[in-house]
Amino acid sequence: MSGIFVRIAHHGVTHFSVACAAMGGWAAFSNRFHPMPAPLTAALIQGVVSGCITLALKGTIERTSSRFSGWSALVAPPVIACILSAIIAVTMHRIGGTPELGQTIVLPLTVSTTYAALYSLALWNAGKDYP
Asked: Membrane spanning segments where (predicted)?
C-alpha cells in the first residue's frame, strides 16, 4: 500500500490538486461573508493560481539559485518567488473581482514563500563546502 501512496505523492497532479483544494478552500473561507458567487470565484482563482505556482516553484527556485552565489543564492530565490507569486495572485484576483484580496492571498503567499525559503536554504547548504 505504501508503494501506491509514494507513486501518487510524486505526481505533479497530486501536488496541483492538494494546492487547489487547500488554498481554494482558504479563499472561499476568506470571502465567506460576501454574496455568492464571490467566495466561489475567489476559491477557483486561488486554487488554480496556487496549483500552478506549486508546480512551478521548485524549478524556479533551482534555476534562480544556480544563477547566484554566496548569500545571494540563499536570499534571492525566495524573494523573487514571493514577488512573482504576489504579482500573479493579485493580478488574477483583481481581474476576478475578489473582495477580500489581502486576506485571500496572505496564507497562500506565506506558505509558498516559506517553502521557497526552506528549499533555497537546503540548496544553499548542499552547495557549501564544509570542513
From this structure: 12-29, 41-61, 73-93, 105-126
